[in-house]
Amino acid sequence: MREDEIVLYMHAGSGNHGCEAIVNSLCHMLGRPAVLVTNRPEEDRRYSLGGLCREMVAEKSIEKNFFVHAWYYAKRALLRDPECFMRYRYGDVTGKNLRKLNISIGGDNYCYDNMLDRLMQSNRMFHRQGAKTALLGCSIEPELLKRPEIVADMRLYDAIIARESLTWQALRDAGIRDNVHLCPDPAFLLESRTLPLPEGWKEGRMLGLNVSPMIVDNEKRAGITMENYRALIAWALEHTDLSVALIPHVVWDSNDDRKPIRRLYEAFADSGRVICLGDASAPELKGYISRCRMFIGARTHATIAAYSTCVPTLAVGYSVKALGIARDLFGDSDHYVLPVQTLERKEDLIGAFSWLMEREGEIREHLARIMPGYREKARGAKALIEGLLD
């Protein structure tokens, strides 16, 4: 077993710039060798992770090879060995290549049912081989912790580092206490990269907007999310001197913010006050977001980029992560998070933004006051991780 290296796993790829932001920030924070197991190594190198990790290991996909797929399904069924999938998937960091500490960095992976078996099996596999595991920067829906198999899985981790207090409290309420800690998402520490501003950017007068297919998928009334975004842009153009910057934060083919953003841009392109940013790395996107006057974001790490640079922000959320982070920053999530499930009228987003705009100055001052301490709490994850290596 290699004692001096850390494995970062459950990383989906940097086309989700939130995933990129977590790895980037964590590598800088730890300042020690780390091996990144990734679905998309070329994608990671194309953005900001090239050179940050000691090694990038491509995660092996059983599904892409019919014969491997058939063999491991038969092995799992005949030998009753569900972890054989994970031993194949993570073969380059198991057995003789095993490291002492393996950190699951998926953030909200436990919020998705299709991820649960893989998360639990990999946790058990690393432990059976004698390694330690940690779950870092996580958000977990409280309802999930009513399932005994999930509680057992949580107890197996050597450390769970929740990124917001709703998850932390839900874990404690489920009886998971000894291995649970609370530290803000490491992406609060991500360094910005400042690029030249695009044509049409009005310094001091930009409202940054991010929308995603994920929130559209969670709406209760079909079409209501895009109706609200269109109504908000029309209202801002008519009633304020703001211009609008549409900013994507995930660009995978299967989950691409640029698709709804393009529809919004086309609806208002003739105004001359709406611009559409292209793809960029997480540090570069944070650089743009930091220069917005206010921000409305659907992607959690887009809002983290705004919060951490003291930009007054409204999260259009759908899960515990948005609510928990806002509550930790402001003491309450009311007015700071607009759950997409509550959208009923096309004016709902206008109302939420109007509240934010009326309090713009005091919100910015509040963030400037608390952010140094909040970022310092995020650095606390380093000591917890180093403790697992002792």
TrEMBL record:
| Residue ranges of every copy of the Polysaccharide pyruvyl transferase domain listed in the record | 103-319
* UniProt entry tagged with the keyword Nucleotide-binding: no
Q: Which Gene3D superfamilies match?
A: Glycogen Phosphorylase B
Q: Which GO terms describe its molecular function?
A: transferase activity
- Which keywords describe this protein according to UniProt? Transferase
> What is the recorded name of this protein?
Polysaccharide pyruvyl transferase family protein
